[in-house]
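Example record

The entry below shows one chain as it appears in the dataset: sequence first, then structure tokens.
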Amino acid sequence: MRELRELTDEEEAQIQRQIASDPDAPEATDEELAQSKSFAEAFPEMAEAIRRGRGRPRIHAPKEAVTLRLDPNTLAKFQATGDDWRSKMSEVLDKAKV
């Protein structure tokens, strides 16, 4: 990872001048800061979506990963059916009367 060097006083001063001259991002006044709201107050729907978390929703009965030793011929037959051979194997096991 690359190390960052310290800014010189002149570089820091130039950055501060550019910040001060940006018409799209003026410095907030004390009054504006006093009236500010938290993110959750300003955007409650977004805040709730973030709180809920990301990813897939949890399902009632998730599938479980197992280790299973199979005859090589049996495995080859299922794999020959295509990329969804695991789903097909699951269907066959579901239909089996055990």
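Notes for this example: The radius of gyration is 30 Å. Helices lie at 9-20, 30-35, 39-42, 44-52, 72-79, 85-95.
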